[in-house]
Amino acid sequence: MTTYIVRRLFATLPVMAVVALFVFFLLRFAPGDPAAIIAGEDATAEAIAAVRAKLGLDRPMVEQFVVWTMQLVRGDMGVSIFSNLPVTRLISQRLEPTVALTLSTLFVAVAMAIPIGVLAAWKARKLVDRLVMGFAVLGFAMPVFVLAYILIYFFAVQWQLLPVQGYQPIKEGLWPFVQSLILPSLALGITYMALIARTTRASMLEVLAQDYMRTANSKGLATNRVLLLHALKNAAVPIVTVIGIGIALLISGVVITETVFNIPGLGRLTVDAVLKRDYPVVQGLILVFAGAKVLVNLIIDISYAFLDPRIRY
Amino acid sequence: MSGNPNAILEVRDLHTQFSTLDGVVRAVDGVSFEVARGETLGIVGESGCGKSVTAMSILRLIPPETGRIASGSIKFEGEELTTLTEEAMKRLRGHRISMIFQEPMTSLNPVLTVGTQIAENVVRHLGVSWKAARERAFEMLDLVRIADARRRLDEYPHQLSGGMRQRVMIAMALSCDPQVLIADEPTTALDVTIQAQILDLMIELKEKTGTAIVLITHDLGVVAETTERVVVMYAGRKVEQATVDALFEEPLHPYTRGLMRAIPRLDVEADAAGTRPRLQEIPGLVPILTQPIMGCAFAPRCGFATDRCRGERPPLVDAGAGHLVACWEIERVRRAV
């Protein structure tokens, strides 16, 4: 197992290298010029060229890429073109809200979706099942920003139960922190929840038809044990897989959610950096997101071995 | 016959039906039999004759979405099971009536250890601690002669062979000392040497524990070796019932005779060229059970069939010494040998 983990960690290096290559060149081939933005609307061509030279953007692209990767190897992501702050510091400052939002969404979605999916499979084709699946289709089809504004309208504006927007760091106290996360987590989590609930139902239905479930029933075990141990543990691998896939969904959703709820996290930083063509910041952020995704995949793969004894690494 | 004080399980006029897109399937169509304490009863018939559905009906494991016990009575120790609450049924299953299945490869849960799967049954029904239940699981594995039982407790089903898995199923089924064990084709998926071992084991354990066994099989050879009485089923109905000796001595229903002619025999002499007579299959197919069958269900495939057979359902009659048969033409069948 340890060898497997070490091998997998090494295998992430080429993945990250490819991500670095793509993000670097894609950004530079994309329209837009940070030098023109910095120099201002009325700047002359010479002024723009001067800014470009100062930022080193006039050098050949390959040279710029080599300089950047050499920095990366030393753990330095470069400096923001606009704020002159190190990219690592910009990212670490904005990390907490995003991690908090992602984890709370993950928790809320999984904690609600799995019981819902199990219930739907158990009561398959009955009313509960139809309601749950109807909700899942709706949840899957609803854009994050639409749901976000609906939630804000009712819970924050009409009933004034929760803040409209903004983020309270955890050091400001647990309750304000939790309060500021409830609506964003719900808005962000609904698609995710629908995805997990549907997968749970499908996977459970397949398992419930297996011979060993007949055995479990023939032993007169309590329904809870039959469903939550005998069936769910067998159904877990596809569910966990989809939870992992959904992390990518969450990362893209975070960008929108943070904008709607005015949360100063990595999502907002990404939007701002992309709009301003702040190359080093965008590059750094994409690497962080890609790294997170790769790490999640690793955790998911390792968890398989705990869920199914037939899987060995 | 009803109210036999020695009977532990009494099935009376059981009708189990399934709703399908093609109509109602009468999988079990008026079957009655009883099982005495400590007895081994065989239920024999082709695939689709309703043997397994009968077994599932006794434990009330027919999926309620598609099937139901339409009528009839199932009495266990005098208690009516068809009207029992689901909770009470659950306390019965795996405890006083337990079941083993045809597919040992898929009947155990692949993600739980063998020890857990046996012990959970004991914890559930005997209310002992997990520690004590695990000890019981160890005893049971030892009893079904699994070598190195202590270590096997922590193994998963995929680490065991088919024969061992069926031993585990037996250990699990007997872990709470049930009064009745229903074995649905327990050896069909195993190879012949393992089949014999498993059957011997079941009979040996039956003698040790006094558990009555209902052995469901399509294999008359298995029946001859292991059971005391036999019920022959065809198209959801009981067509013949006798002690094993009487049945093999003189099978009275043309269907039973057909089944017997389809068994390869070692006591039939080969001719000079070294060939033995061809085994005879029963012509035709099992009837479609969505249509009500007016006469004898076997009539379309039967060489003795008359118009009466096709039009009127033959009652079960006693042909002597408790040998029951449902056939209008017993005398002609008898003479035909």
TrEMBL record, chain A:
Family: Belongs to the binding-protein-dependent transport system permease family.
CDD domains assigned: TM_PBP2 (cd06261)
Lineage start: Bacteria, Pseudomonadati, Pseudomonadota, Alphaproteobacteria, Hyphomicrobiales
Spans through the membrane: 9-27, 99-122, 134-156, 176-195, 235-261, 281-307
Name of the protein in question: ABC transporter permease
Record-annotated ABC transmembrane type-1 domain positions: 95-300
Subcellular location: Cell membrane
PROSITE patterns referenced in this protein's UniProt entry, alphabetically: ABC_TM1 (PS50928)
Keywords: Cell membrane, Membrane, Transmembrane, Transmembrane helix, Transport
UniProt organism field: Reyranella aquatilis
Mode of membrane association: Multi-pass membrane protein
Main localisation: membrane
UniProtKB/TrEMBL annotation, chain B:
Domain of life, per lineage: Bacteria
Domain ABC transporter: 9-260
Phosphoprotein listed as a keyword: no
A single GO molecular function term of this UniProt record: ATP binding
CDD domains referenced in this protein's UniProt entry, alphabetically: ABC_NikE_OppD_transporters
Family listed: Belongs to the ABC transporter superfamily.
Protein name, UniProt field: ABC transporter ATP-binding protein
Species this chain originates from: Reyranella aquatilis
